[in-house]
Specification:
5 helices, single chain, about 190 residues, mainly alpha
């Protein structure tokens, strides 16, 4: 897909000899890069903010329920602490990413490098959230089991988290494909220049 777009941006017609002549329409290319960068930043911002809010909110809720019920379920307290740590890590990562975005210039090359940087970050964030399903699911399952609930409920929850882990691979592969497209475009531009 990116190859066709690049070739469309590149091809112009030489009217003197009716042969295609290849040149880069820089404005169209830059607009395309800006569009991909904007889309990547939008997805990354939503992913980060949603992950921070969900982890912090769930951590507060789990801690509050266990504390006020005087529950001695240590797995739920560990889960609450884990979610707070994840929220804090995500917040620090977000601040670092936003600060790093300022180091790119506003040229075609700078915007493309910025888009690749954001795509790389999104791939890492997606992978981290995917791996986070494992400890979170394990702690929730152990907490349900330790709380005296049915073994079938704990087994059902564990199955749900395993399926969620495998389904998250689909989303992760979308981010990897978008990053690869940007890297291919950069490679083509470097070879042209």
């Amino acid at each position: 897909m990116i190859t066709m777009e690049f070739e469309e941006l590149q091809k112009i017609w030489d009217t003197q000899n009716n042969e295609p002549l290849y040149a880069i329409n820089e404005k169209a290319l830059h607009n395309r890069i800006l569009s991909k960068k904007k889309q990547g930043l939008h997805i990354t911002n939503i992913s980060e903010l949603l992950s921070i809010i969900v982890n912090a909110g769930a951590g507060c809720f789990i801690f509050g329920v266990n504390f006020f019920k005087h529950s001695g379920n240590m797995f739920m307290y560990i889960l609450s602490a884990w979610m707070f740590i994840c929220a804090l890590y995500l917040l620090v990562s977000r601040l670092r990413r936003v600060k790093a975005n300022q180091r790119f210039d506003r040229s075609i090359s700078g915007d493309l490098n910025n888009a690749i940087s954001v795509a790389t970050y999104q791939v890492r964030l997606s992978q981290m959230m995917r791996w986070n399903i494992l400890p979170t699911g394990t702690l929730i399952t152990l907490g349900v089991w330790n709380g005296g609930k049915s073994v079938w409920l704990a087994a059902g929850m564990l199955l749900f988290f395993v399926l969620t882990y495998y389904a998250s691979a689909w989303e992760h592969n979308i981010y990897k494909r978008k990053k690869r497209e940007l890297e291919m475009l950069k490679s083509k531009l470097d070879n042209e220049g």
